[in-house]
Here is the input.
Amino acid sequence: MKTENIDDIKRKEFTYRGKTLEELKKLDVREFSKYIKSGPRRTVLRQFQNIEDFISRANVKLNKNKPIRTHERSLVIVPEMVGMKINIHDGRNFIPVIIMGEMLGHRLGEFAMTRGKVKHSKAGIGATKGSKFKAKK
Here is the structure.
């Protein structure tokens, strides 16, 4: 039995439908659409110009060291976006999201939740019959 050092074990390389991230980044947006599911594929093929414009604007902002902020929650994530830190609007403020390879084919809005988690506490004044007659102040 051969014992291997933990450092010798190489981390599994990310692939998407059999293609490495470097191969995917070389593809055009429309060529990448062949590898994603049918719903996002149709969206990418219809809106490839919007996606390319967004990527070019994002690259300009990255060169100026400015944050990338967007309200466009419906954009499909393509390989050129991987590694970018994009601030996505959730309706109230901008949520910072770092785009990773596992997010390919999903939409930006899926990673910036619009509804917060509900924190239940005690009932407010007037919420129950017992608190109906208590003073408001």
Q: What stands out?
A: The first strand starts at residue 15 and ends at 16.
